[in-house]
Design brief:
The protein has 341 residues and is an alpha/beta fold. The chain has two domains: 131 residues, Glycogen Phosphorylase B (Rossmann fold), CATH 3.40.50; 182 residues, Rossmann fold, CATH 3.40.50.2000. It is built from 13 helices and twelve strands.
Length: 341
Amino acid sequence: MRMTRPDVVSARLVVRMPNWLGDAVMALPALAAIRHAYPETWLAIAALPAVAPLFLEQTDVGPQQIIVLEKDRERALIREGAFDAALLLTNSFRTAWVVKGAGIRERWGYAAGGRGPLLTRALARPRRELHQSDYYLELVRGLGFEAPALLPRIRVTDATRHRASKLLEAHGVTEGSAIVGFAPGAAYGHAKRWPPTRVAEVVGRLARERGAVCVLVGSDADRDAGRAIESSLPPGVQVVNLIGRTDLRLLMGVLSACRAFVSNDSGAMHLAAAVGGPVTAIFGPTNERATAPLGDHDVILHQVFCRPCMLRECPIDHRCMRRIGADEVYNAVTRRIDRQA
Protein backbone atom coordinates (compact mmCIF):
# COMPACT_ATOMS: atom_id res chain seq x y z
CA MET A 1 0.00 0.00 0.00
CA ARG A 2 1.29 3.45 -0.94
CA MET A 3 1.42 5.95 1.90
CA THR A 4 1.15 9.72 1.83
CA ARG A 5 4.58 11.24 1.53
CA PRO A 6 5.88 12.22 4.98
CA ASP A 7 6.14 15.96 5.62
CA VAL A 8 9.72 16.39 6.86
CA VAL A 9 10.82 19.19 4.53
CA SER A 10 12.38 21.18 7.35
CA ALA A 11 13.45 18.15 9.37
CA ARG A 12 16.76 16.38 9.78
CA LEU A 13 16.72 13.02 7.97
CA VAL A 14 19.27 10.24 8.31
CA VAL A 15 19.47 7.31 5.90
CA ARG A 16 20.98 4.08 7.22
CA MET A 17 22.79 2.61 4.24
CA PRO A 18 23.13 -1.12 3.42
CA ASN A 19 26.31 -2.73 4.69
CA TRP A 20 27.48 -4.08 1.32
CA LEU A 21 29.10 -1.77 -1.22
CA GLY A 22 27.18 -3.17 -4.19
CA ASP A 23 23.87 -2.71 -2.37
CA ALA A 24 24.81 0.87 -1.49
CA VAL A 25 25.46 1.63 -5.17
CA MET A 26 22.15 0.06 -6.17
CA ALA A 27 20.37 2.21 -3.58
CA LEU A 28 21.54 5.47 -5.19
CA PRO A 29 18.43 5.95 -7.39
CA ALA A 30 16.16 5.61 -4.35
CA LEU A 31 18.27 8.13 -2.46
CA ALA A 32 18.21 10.49 -5.43
CA ALA A 33 14.39 10.38 -5.28
CA ILE A 34 14.49 11.37 -1.61
CA ARG A 35 16.85 14.24 -2.34
CA HIS A 36 14.70 15.43 -5.24
CA ALA A 37 11.60 15.45 -3.03
CA TYR A 38 13.37 17.22 -0.16
CA PRO A 39 16.04 19.46 -1.72
CA GLU A 40 16.23 21.69 1.36
CA THR A 41 16.16 18.96 4.00
CA TRP A 42 19.27 18.26 6.05
CA LEU A 43 20.19 14.82 4.76
CA ALA A 44 22.72 12.62 6.50
CA ILE A 45 24.12 9.30 5.34
CA ALA A 46 25.01 6.75 8.04
CA ALA A 47 27.18 3.95 6.72
CA LEU A 48 29.93 1.53 7.64
CA PRO A 49 33.53 2.57 6.85
CA ALA A 50 33.56 0.31 3.77
CA VAL A 51 30.64 2.26 2.24
CA ALA A 52 30.71 5.82 3.59
CA PRO A 53 33.50 7.22 1.32
CA LEU A 54 31.25 6.58 -1.68
CA PHE A 55 29.43 9.80 -0.84
CA LEU A 56 32.59 11.90 -0.84
CA GLU A 57 32.48 11.63 -4.63
CA GLN A 58 29.73 13.35 -6.62
CA THR A 59 26.33 11.62 -6.61
CA ASP A 60 22.73 12.73 -7.06
CA VAL A 61 22.27 12.43 -3.30
CA GLY A 62 24.41 15.31 -2.09
CA PRO A 63 24.24 14.66 1.66
CA GLN A 64 25.11 17.45 4.08
CA GLN A 65 26.58 14.96 6.53
CA ILE A 66 28.28 11.57 6.38
CA ILE A 67 28.30 9.52 9.56
CA VAL A 68 30.92 6.80 9.56
CA LEU A 69 29.54 4.16 11.90
CA GLU A 70 32.03 2.76 14.37
CA LYS A 71 31.65 -0.61 16.02
CA ASP A 72 29.60 -0.44 19.24
CA ARG A 73 29.03 3.31 18.79
CA GLU A 74 26.33 3.30 16.12
CA ARG A 75 23.52 4.43 18.41
CA ALA A 76 25.59 7.19 20.01
CA LEU A 77 26.78 8.54 16.67
CA ILE A 78 23.26 8.67 15.27
CA ARG A 79 21.87 10.18 18.47
CA GLU A 80 24.39 13.03 18.20
CA GLY A 81 22.74 14.10 14.96
CA ALA A 82 19.43 14.91 16.70
CA PHE A 83 17.53 13.57 13.69
CA ASP A 84 13.76 13.83 13.27
CA ALA A 85 13.42 10.92 10.84
CA ALA A 86 15.35 7.83 9.76
CA LEU A 87 15.05 5.79 6.57
CA LEU A 88 16.38 2.26 6.92
CA LEU A 89 17.71 0.65 3.76
CA THR A 90 18.82 -2.29 5.87
CA ASN A 91 16.52 -5.19 6.77
CA SER A 92 17.83 -6.10 10.21
CA PHE A 93 16.01 -5.87 13.52
CA ARG A 94 19.17 -4.44 15.06
CA THR A 95 19.30 -1.31 12.91
CA ALA A 96 15.66 -0.53 13.68
CA TRP A 97 16.40 -1.01 17.38
CA VAL A 98 19.39 1.34 17.09
CA VAL A 99 17.47 4.24 15.52
CA LYS A 100 14.61 3.86 17.98
CA GLY A 101 17.11 3.85 20.84
CA ALA A 102 18.70 6.97 19.34
CA GLY A 103 15.46 8.82 19.99
CA ILE A 104 14.43 9.35 16.36
CA ARG A 105 10.71 10.08 16.18
CA GLU A 106 9.98 8.95 12.60
CA ARG A 107 11.40 5.58 11.51
CA TRP A 108 10.71 4.20 8.02
CA GLY A 109 11.56 0.91 6.38
CA TYR A 110 10.49 -2.57 5.40
CA ALA A 111 8.85 -4.59 8.15
CA ALA A 112 11.48 -7.30 7.88
CA GLY A 113 12.83 -9.56 10.60
CA GLY A 114 10.01 -8.86 13.04
CA ARG A 115 10.95 -5.20 13.38
CA GLY A 116 7.61 -3.76 12.22
CA PRO A 117 6.61 -2.56 15.73
CA LEU A 118 9.83 -0.53 15.93
CA LEU A 119 8.94 1.47 12.81
CA THR A 120 6.44 4.32 12.48
CA ARG A 121 6.06 3.67 8.75
CA ALA A 122 6.50 -0.03 8.02
CA LEU A 123 5.97 -1.52 4.58
CA ALA A 124 5.62 -5.18 3.67
CA ARG A 125 8.53 -6.46 1.64
CA PRO A 126 7.72 -7.08 -2.06
CA ARG A 127 6.73 -10.66 -2.78
CA ARG A 128 7.73 -10.67 -6.44
CA GLU A 129 11.30 -11.00 -7.60
CA LEU A 130 12.93 -7.60 -8.08
CA HIS A 131 16.31 -6.26 -8.98
CA GLN A 132 17.93 -5.01 -5.78
CA SER A 133 17.78 -1.42 -7.03
CA ASP A 134 14.03 -1.78 -7.59
CA TYR A 135 13.73 -3.21 -4.09
CA TYR A 136 14.94 0.10 -2.68
CA LEU A 137 12.85 2.09 -5.15
CA GLU A 138 9.72 0.20 -4.10
CA LEU A 139 10.39 1.19 -0.50
CA VAL A 140 10.56 4.91 -1.21
CA ARG A 141 7.58 4.67 -3.58
CA GLY A 142 5.61 2.95 -0.84
CA LEU A 143 6.47 5.86 1.43
CA GLY A 144 4.84 8.21 -1.08
CA PHE A 145 7.79 9.45 -3.13
CA GLU A 146 8.01 9.67 -6.91
CA ALA A 147 10.94 7.42 -7.72
CA PRO A 148 11.78 6.82 -11.40
CA ALA A 149 14.00 3.86 -12.25
CA LEU A 150 17.18 5.81 -12.91
CA LEU A 151 20.68 4.40 -13.17
CA PRO A 152 23.10 4.77 -10.27
CA ARG A 153 25.57 7.53 -11.13
CA ILE A 154 28.88 8.46 -9.55
CA ARG A 155 30.99 11.30 -10.92
CA VAL A 156 34.56 10.98 -9.75
CA THR A 157 36.10 14.23 -8.54
CA ASP A 158 39.15 15.72 -10.22
CA ALA A 159 41.15 15.19 -7.04
CA THR A 160 40.37 11.48 -7.05
CA ARG A 161 41.18 11.16 -10.75
CA HIS A 162 44.53 12.81 -10.07
CA ARG A 163 45.29 10.39 -7.22
CA ALA A 164 44.45 7.45 -9.46
CA SER A 165 46.59 8.81 -12.27
CA LYS A 166 49.56 9.12 -9.93
CA LEU A 167 49.07 5.57 -8.64
CA LEU A 168 48.88 4.11 -12.15
CA GLU A 169 51.89 6.14 -13.24
CA ALA A 170 53.86 4.78 -10.28
CA HIS A 171 53.13 1.27 -11.60
CA GLY A 172 54.33 2.09 -15.10
CA VAL A 173 50.96 2.88 -16.71
CA THR A 174 51.44 5.80 -19.08
CA GLU A 175 48.80 8.37 -19.96
CA GLY A 176 46.62 7.25 -22.87
CA SER A 177 47.07 3.52 -22.20
CA ALA A 178 44.13 1.26 -23.00
CA ILE A 179 43.39 0.10 -19.47
CA VAL A 180 41.16 -2.90 -18.81
CA GLY A 181 40.29 -3.51 -15.17
CA PHE A 182 39.66 -6.86 -13.55
CA ALA A 183 38.03 -7.61 -10.18
CA PRO A 184 38.80 -11.33 -9.71
CA GLY A 185 37.46 -11.59 -6.16
CA ALA A 186 34.05 -11.51 -4.52
CA ALA A 187 33.32 -10.95 -0.85
CA TYR A 188 30.37 -13.36 -0.74
CA GLY A 189 32.43 -16.50 -1.32
CA HIS A 190 34.68 -18.49 -3.64
CA ALA A 191 31.74 -19.86 -5.63
CA LYS A 192 31.26 -16.42 -7.24
CA ARG A 193 34.83 -16.34 -8.57
CA TRP A 194 35.66 -17.17 -12.15
CA PRO A 195 38.79 -19.41 -12.18
CA PRO A 196 42.03 -17.38 -12.08
CA THR A 197 43.44 -19.39 -15.00
CA ARG A 198 40.59 -18.11 -17.20
CA VAL A 199 41.22 -14.55 -16.08
CA ALA A 200 44.89 -15.00 -16.99
CA GLU A 201 43.90 -16.25 -20.46
CA VAL A 202 41.88 -13.09 -21.11
CA VAL A 203 44.61 -10.84 -19.72
CA GLY A 204 47.18 -12.53 -21.96
CA ARG A 205 45.12 -12.11 -25.10
CA LEU A 206 44.26 -8.48 -24.35
CA ALA A 207 47.91 -7.68 -23.74
CA ARG A 208 49.26 -9.49 -26.81
CA GLU A 209 46.50 -8.82 -29.34
CA ARG A 210 45.21 -5.42 -28.23
CA GLY A 211 48.12 -3.87 -26.39
CA ALA A 212 45.93 -3.38 -23.35
CA VAL A 213 47.25 -2.68 -19.88
CA CYS A 214 45.37 -4.99 -17.53
CA VAL A 215 44.90 -3.90 -13.94
CA LEU A 216 43.74 -6.11 -11.06
CA VAL A 217 41.75 -4.47 -8.25
CA GLY A 218 40.19 -5.77 -5.07
CA SER A 219 40.45 -5.93 -1.32
CA ASP A 220 43.08 -7.61 0.85
CA ALA A 221 40.92 -10.74 0.83
CA ASP A 222 41.46 -11.05 -2.94
CA ARG A 223 45.26 -11.22 -2.80
CA ASP A 224 45.32 -14.99 -3.31
CA ALA A 225 43.23 -14.65 -6.46
CA GLY A 226 45.61 -11.97 -7.74
CA ARG A 227 48.67 -14.13 -7.11
CA ALA A 228 47.01 -17.11 -8.82
CA ILE A 229 46.36 -14.96 -11.90
CA GLU A 230 49.92 -13.66 -11.99
CA SER A 231 51.34 -17.17 -11.74
CA SER A 232 49.12 -18.33 -14.63
CA LEU A 233 50.03 -15.56 -17.09
CA PRO A 234 51.72 -16.52 -20.37
CA PRO A 235 55.46 -15.79 -20.60
CA GLY A 236 56.18 -12.12 -21.22
CA VAL A 237 52.75 -10.89 -20.15
CA GLN A 238 52.51 -8.68 -17.12
CA VAL A 239 49.60 -7.31 -15.14
CA VAL A 240 49.38 -4.31 -12.80
CA ASN A 241 48.30 -5.77 -9.48
CA LEU A 242 46.60 -3.12 -7.31
CA ILE A 243 44.72 -5.61 -5.14
CA GLY A 244 44.73 -4.35 -1.57
CA ARG A 245 46.47 -1.11 -2.59
CA THR A 246 43.48 1.22 -3.04
CA ASP A 247 40.98 2.77 -0.69
CA LEU A 248 37.40 3.09 -1.95
CA ARG A 249 37.82 6.53 -3.46
CA LEU A 250 41.09 5.61 -5.13
CA LEU A 251 39.41 2.51 -6.54
CA MET A 252 36.73 4.71 -8.11
CA GLY A 253 39.46 6.82 -9.66
CA VAL A 254 41.12 3.75 -11.17
CA LEU A 255 37.77 2.51 -12.48
CA SER A 256 37.17 5.86 -14.16
CA ALA A 257 40.40 5.36 -16.11
CA CYS A 258 39.39 1.95 -17.50
CA ARG A 259 38.22 1.46 -21.08
CA ALA A 260 36.46 -1.74 -19.98
CA PHE A 261 36.02 -3.71 -16.78
CA VAL A 262 35.66 -7.45 -16.09
CA SER A 263 34.21 -8.58 -12.80
CA ASN A 264 32.47 -11.31 -10.91
CA ASP A 265 29.23 -10.36 -9.17
CA SER A 266 30.73 -7.95 -6.65
CA GLY A 267 30.68 -4.44 -5.26
CA ALA A 268 33.42 -3.43 -7.69
CA MET A 269 31.16 -4.51 -10.55
CA HIS A 270 28.40 -2.12 -9.45
CA LEU A 271 30.90 0.62 -8.72
CA ALA A 272 32.42 0.36 -12.20
CA ALA A 273 28.99 0.50 -13.81
CA ALA A 274 28.03 3.58 -11.79
CA VAL A 275 31.29 5.34 -12.66
CA GLY A 276 30.34 4.90 -16.29
CA GLY A 277 32.58 2.30 -17.91
CA PRO A 278 31.36 -0.79 -19.83
CA VAL A 279 31.30 -3.86 -17.61
CA THR A 280 31.56 -7.52 -18.53
CA ALA A 281 29.93 -9.22 -15.55
CA ILE A 282 30.45 -12.94 -14.94
CA PHE A 283 27.68 -14.67 -13.01
CA GLY A 284 27.67 -18.15 -11.52
CA PRO A 285 25.80 -19.08 -8.34
CA THR A 286 24.06 -15.71 -7.87
CA ASN A 287 20.93 -14.38 -9.55
CA GLU A 288 21.63 -11.94 -12.37
CA ARG A 289 17.97 -10.87 -12.35
CA ALA A 290 18.54 -9.43 -8.87
CA THR A 291 22.07 -8.05 -9.02
CA ALA A 292 23.19 -7.54 -12.62
CA PRO A 293 24.96 -4.21 -13.23
CA LEU A 294 22.47 -1.54 -14.22
CA GLY A 295 22.79 0.00 -17.67
CA ASP A 296 24.26 -1.14 -20.97
CA HIS A 297 26.62 -3.90 -19.88
CA ASP A 298 27.36 -7.53 -20.77
CA VAL A 299 26.24 -10.30 -18.42
CA ILE A 300 27.88 -13.65 -19.11
CA LEU A 301 26.64 -16.87 -17.55
CA HIS A 302 26.25 -20.56 -18.30
CA GLN A 303 22.91 -22.07 -17.43
CA VAL A 304 23.16 -25.30 -15.47
CA PHE A 305 20.49 -27.12 -13.49
CA CYS A 306 21.74 -25.93 -10.09
CA ARG A 307 22.05 -22.19 -10.64
CA PRO A 308 21.34 -19.80 -9.09
CA CYS A 309 22.05 -21.73 -5.90
CA MET A 310 23.29 -18.69 -3.89
CA LEU A 311 25.86 -20.88 -2.11
CA ARG A 312 29.17 -19.44 -0.94
CA GLU A 313 31.08 -22.60 -1.83
CA CYS A 314 30.21 -25.05 -4.61
CA PRO A 315 29.52 -28.58 -3.27
CA ILE A 316 30.10 -30.20 -6.68
CA ASP A 317 32.31 -29.12 -9.60
CA HIS A 318 31.64 -25.36 -9.94
CA ARG A 319 30.26 -26.02 -13.40
CA CYS A 320 28.36 -22.70 -13.62
CA MET A 321 31.67 -20.82 -13.67
CA ARG A 322 34.05 -23.36 -15.18
CA ARG A 323 31.90 -23.68 -18.31
CA ILE A 324 32.28 -19.98 -19.10
CA GLY A 325 35.11 -19.85 -21.61
CA ALA A 326 37.85 -17.23 -21.91
CA ASP A 327 36.90 -16.56 -25.54
CA GLU A 328 33.40 -15.47 -24.55
CA VAL A 329 34.71 -12.94 -22.05
CA TYR A 330 37.50 -11.74 -24.33
CA ASN A 331 35.06 -11.16 -27.20
CA ALA A 332 32.68 -9.20 -24.99
CA VAL A 333 35.50 -6.94 -23.78
CA THR A 334 36.95 -6.30 -27.23
CA ARG A 335 33.50 -5.47 -28.66
CA ARG A 336 33.17 -2.79 -26.00
CA ILE A 337 36.63 -1.43 -26.70
CA ASP A 338 35.96 -1.36 -30.46
CA ARG A 339 32.78 0.68 -29.95
CA GLN A 340 34.88 3.41 -28.37
CA ALA A 341 37.36 3.52 -31.25
